[in-house]
Each structure stands twice: as structure tokens, then as C-alpha cells.
Design brief:
about 170 residues; alpha/beta; Rossmann fold; 5-stranded parallel β-sheet; 5 strands; globular
Length: about 170
């Protein structure tokens, strides 16, 4: 069976929903950020500070290329994976689903998280809002979308499984 790729802004629920889906479908869960951290032997924040965002985005693309050829995976992607044209092309050729959430709900989830290098600024709310708005149209360009606002992860994963079954047929 094909893999399921979860995309969305940081804090949209990709990791939580990914875990729920992996249990429900008995698929292995792969988090692209964690996979990159393992391969590089450092945290994402370190990669950003020592090697830069461009270097990280290349690692992300390489990881996505590898995973796009695998089966029976739930892939939780980093929030910025959709920034590169080549990544969007890959994601449009696999079963990917955009987990959509209201910005204020997202910010409540991520505001205390110090592992998000793009938010380590004097005004994390303003920074996050600008990033969110700059990526919005890219996310919206994806065919499969599910709004996660005020929904239980089990219900969201049920919706994804229903979409996935239709995709598989």
C-alpha cells in the first residue's frame, strides 16, 4: 500500500495524527525532522545555527525523495517542506494530506516550544504569523485537506483513512 504524507504548518498536529494513523493502519511512522536529526547527529536548531536553513532544506528534500519510494509508512513532514517546488511536486504525486488549523490555535500549541528554530525571535507570535501567511497559499494548493480545529485526533485519523481508501481504489 502507498504511504501517507502529512503536511501542514508547525503545530497543526502532524506528529499526533501520525501516531494515531500508524496505530490504526499498522504502518511505521517516520518524522522527517527526527530522521534528519538522527542522520546528522544534531538537533534541527543546531543544524539551522551551524549549517543554515538552506542546508537543512536540502536534507529535507533528500529525505522526502527516499521516503516517497517506500510503502506502508505514515510520514510526518516538517512545516517548511512545501517551500521547495521539487518537494511540492513529490508531495503531489503521493498521497499527501494538508492538516489545516487556525493560526491562533496553532500558536497556542507551539508558543512555549523552544525547538522550533524559526520562532526563536523577540516576537515569536509575529514571526509565526508572518511565516504562516507566507506559506498559506502553498498549503492550500494541495488537493487533500482536513481542518483539525477542535477535533479529536481519532476523528481526524478516521477522516484521513476514509480519504486514503478512496485514493487507493
Amino acid at each position: 500500500m502507498n504511504s501517507i504524507f502529512l503536511i501542514g504548518f508547525m503545530g497543526a498536529g502532524k506528529s499526533t495524527i501520525g501516531l494515531e494513523l500508524s496505530k490504526k493502519l499498522s504502518f511505521n511512522l517516520v518524522d522527517t525532522d527526527k530522521s534528519i536529526e538522527r542522520s546528522q547527529g544534531m538537533k534541527i536548531t543546531e543544524i539551522f545555527s551551524k549549517k543554515g536553513e538552506d542546508f537543512f532544506r536540502e536534507l529535507e528534500t533528500n529525505e522526502l525523495k527516499l521516503l516517497s519510494n517506500e510503502h506502508n509508512l505514515i510520514v510526518s513532514t516538517g512545516g517548511g517542506i512545501i517551500l521547495k517546488d521539487s518537494n511540492r511536486e513529490i508531495l503531489n504525486n503521493v498521497f499527501s494530506i494538508y492538516l489545516k488549523a487556525d493560526f491562533d490555535i496553532i500558536f497556542e500549541r507551539i508558543k512555549e516550544d523552544k525547538t522550533r528554530p524559526l520562532l526563536l525571535t523577540d516576537n515569536p507570535y509575529k514571526t509565526a504569523k508572518e511565516i504562516f501567511e507566507s506559506r498559506y497559499e502553498l498549503y492550500e494548493s494541495f488537493q487533500n485537506k482536513i481542518n483539525t480545529d477542535n477535533k479529536h485526533p481519532k476523528d481526524i485519523s478516521d477522516e484521513i483513512v476514509n480519504l486514503y481508501k478512496n485514493y487507493e481504489n
